Hints:
The protein has 166 residues and is of the alpha+beta class. The chain has three helices and nine strands.
Amino acid sequence: MEYWDIYDKNKQRTGRTMKRNDWCLADDEYHLTVLGVIVRPDGKFLITKRVETKSWAAGWWEVPGGGVKAGEEPREAVNREVFEETGLDVSGCEDGYLFTYHRENPGEGDNYFVDVYRFVMDFEESDVHCQEAETDGFQLADAAQIREYAAQGIFLHYDSIREAFE
């Protein structure tokens, strides 16, 4: 069973944990997730397509990411998530932290912070090995293509992370 730390409104760990996806948070409690935006020197971004079996946003495009495990640091989590989902190792890249945003869902038990990272990395398509349980392929897209997917309503988190593509 995977556990996540519970954070307060100031993004400080409370010392308590929750089971992954057990939406039990009070309105002033949060969990933490990370997103890793990967861009090649030629300006192409690595985006992945969510598998159709996902219960939420199935078939949408996104960037790699996921929950920060209890006791894990956000940078460790983004390294792990990017590697698990794409096979790319961003641990040697400069610290790509850009910003944090948060969502509050009153009464739903699912409030969260999202730390957004961007890594500039030279890689070939053959270096990408998608996690089949999570993704249904990938694409190297420029910012205009990502904006187009967002306009179609099929790019996850776009409004919250658009500056990562600038």
